[in-house]
Write a structure and sequence with these properties.
A hairpin with a 5-residue loop joins strand 1 and strand 2. This protein has no helices and three strands. It is mainly β. It has one domain: Rubrerythrin, domain 2 (Single Sheet). The chain has a three-stranded antiparallel β-sheet with strand order 2-1-3, with no helix packed on it. The chain binds zinc ion. Zinc ion binds next to loops.
Length: about 60
């Protein structure tokens, strides 16, 4: 099974979960909120880099 990274839309908690292809995303373990699957590796940007690939949620410099 592939390992996916999720971010809770409600509280922002990151979760890395194994998920079957047809399985619905699980709920957040903290708040039972909806988890959003991250398609690619989570973009983390350094201050010297462009933030063009960053969602903003995980970034302390462009959020
Ligand atoms: Zn949550």
């Amino acid at each position: 099974m592939p390992l996916y990274r999720f971010i809770c839309k409600n509280c922002g908690k990151e979760e890395s979960l194994l998920l079957k292809y047809n399985q619905q995303p699980p709920r957040c373990s903290e708040c039972d909120g909806e988890l959003e699957k991250q398609i690619s590796r989570v973009a983390t940007c350094r201050k010297s880099e462009s933030c063009s690939g960053c969602s903003g949620r995980n970034c302390g410099s462009c959020g």
